Fold:
Amino acid sequence: MTDAVVFDRVTFGYPASVQAVLDDVSLRLPEGSFVLVTGPTGGGKSTLLRAINGLVPHFSGGRFSGRVLTASRDTRMFKPRDMADAVAFVPQDPGASFVLDQVEDELAYGMENLGTPVAHMRRRIEEVVDLLGIDSLRRRSVRGLSGGERQRVAIAAALAAGPRVLVLDEPTSQLDPQGAEDVLAALARLVHDLGMTVVAAEHRLERIASFADVVVGCLPREVVAGSAAEVFDRIGSGPPVTLVGRALGWSPAPLSVRDARRHAATTTLRRPRGARPPAGPPAVRARSAVAGYDGVDVIPGIDLVLGTGERVALMGRNGSGKTTLLRLLAGLLPPRAGSVGTATGPPRTGVDVALCPQEPESVLFCSTVAEEISSTVARRSDVDPRRFIQEFGLADVADVHPRDLSAGRRLLVAAAAIAATGAPVLLLDEPTRGLDPEAKAALTDFLVGFTERGGSSMFATHDVELAAAAASRVVMLAGGEVIADGAPEDVLGDSAVFAPQMTRVFGAGWLTPSQVIAAASS
Amino acid sequence: MSVHPGAWVVWGVGAGLVAMLTTNPFYLLPLVGVSWLVYSACRVPGPSARSFRTFLTFAVVALVLRSGLVLFGTLDAGNLASAVVEGLRLGTLLVVFGTFNSVADPYGVLRLAPRRFYEVGLASALALAFAPRMIAAVTSVRDAQRLRGIHVSRMRMLPALAVPVLENGMEDALVLAESMDARGHGRGRRSRYRPLPWTTASWVVATAAATTLSIFVITALGDNGGLSPSLFPLTWPEAESILVASVCLLAVPALLPKEGSR
Structure:
């Protein structure tokens, strides 16, 4: 089998940076394989992806040595645009990458540049529209799409150009679990049926691990490639089933729920621990609240209480009204009817209720992480900004410019700056984009500590494993209405789509690897 | 009937050059009115249409600032009048640009650029993308900072608004440039998925704009026709009806029959 992508002793450092991001990297990605690129934040995943079509170094600048061969073309000789017929690239947040206004034109853009005949373009567009399930979006403007819709359109546009190699940076970060499954399955089919090579960076391994033929692990000092089992073992990471299998000494450590079930049959676990402490008095409450934009009611009337000390995961498919509900509770969107209130009256934005928005970049304006947090704290004398830096695990980057951090770390900085308002209710809108497991654990720890000190939190997320690990209650939305509300093991355990891996393997009541490991070892 | 982006380019260039050729308020004010009419009738719903209001604000600011500058020099009627008409001309240009932005999809226009001018095309794409996206970003950043208890309406907190808006704008522009490059912008061959037809309406708009511009150019080359009324000594500007009428000709896009269902 020939190799779709070859890295031959590649070393690269960005301009004005002493440290090399890629240090003497050599790897071969065989044609027709599904390649997962993973590793901690700052390990150089995005750089590695960009080197495949020559955006690194042609677009980034910097020092580059060694060579990258993609579809037998040396990226030193071919510019990214000359690779466009062979490689397609979908960046992390595709919103900014759209060139044309209407979705259908956007799908055709790459093919137009390649001079594809019109009849052929029509056929390709029909195919990718079906494949990604975006027929209803064709006539829409790309500017008005939701995060999940943008990701589908960007992937469809990349596929339409008919690349041999498709490179994606966190392609499912904003998709609901079912949507992510559908997109990954569609990509896997292209790999199997057409021999396309897919290279995708992901943190949420539980979704993608079972599709991957090859895993590339990017560590700060080295890059390793091999089978999923080898690489997960080497970099000490993996989906929940792998972590549990490793801890319980299952050999080989399972990669899928199916593998894990065989081992689970021989493992006895003590029943999970008792009930959680009951929720305190309401911190914020919506009473028959109606909300929406431009005359459309996204939330047709909702009754919901966030109790003191609760950590509520707000889940539901793309477009179910999660963001609207958070904006409503934060006092940013006044209810059209009904009411929203805290114990002392309507929520005062940034005082009673703080909300970390979906685009964390919108709040960052200082030149260091420490300043960013102090600037929120400045108006209050009772808080030490260093506390938030510690709690969010940002001590090592306190003096770094927030814009120089990876997407995941930026999100933590924004969350810390917003938590520093001292508002007793903290809302977060999809706080998981770009978060590696370590950062996710820091966020979870903070939320647990915050609510134990008397705070209350609600976070919208598509990440079932985060909900399983961090939530004390799960609220499921559909069409702006609450369709399920209860303890995580009940709401998540009851769902074919939203069940976390531990529930799938060990049955209802089991949510996280650490819970299972504790129950097995005692 | 839809108007081809190329016809809008002719309209925009025509209206813009007319604004630059004259300082006579009797030609500039009708031009502002005409732009507003065209904007109202032909805007494409979306963020670029919303940016018209921002350009209108810029125009007023330009007029006030330019007129205010005179306070730092010799204050006499001639200087004041000169500042006001200069400000008015700048404001008119901004209104024309805002109208052009909201009636023609900037990217649609960009794709008309001949492929030899790839670099220029890319640079203009970034420039065109920068302003409207920044304007859209202002609202979202203001909201986000409010959530953090920072009210950017206070002067001291202005960096909290300006820095994320500019930096997001820059980052978005880079992502766009990267994406265009990675998707083959500027390669040799090209085809069009849905070529826009050069409709009768496009002919009408382009011809009207070209006519207006020709009349003004001929006037400028010849006897001047009150294009630049004397300021020293200050005289009451005079307007020729044919020139006023030709400015009104630029309102033709507003009078075209509305686009039916496709």
Remarks:
- The longest helix of chain A spans residues 177-194.
- The radius of gyration of chain A is 23 Å.
- Chain A has 19 helices and 19 strands.
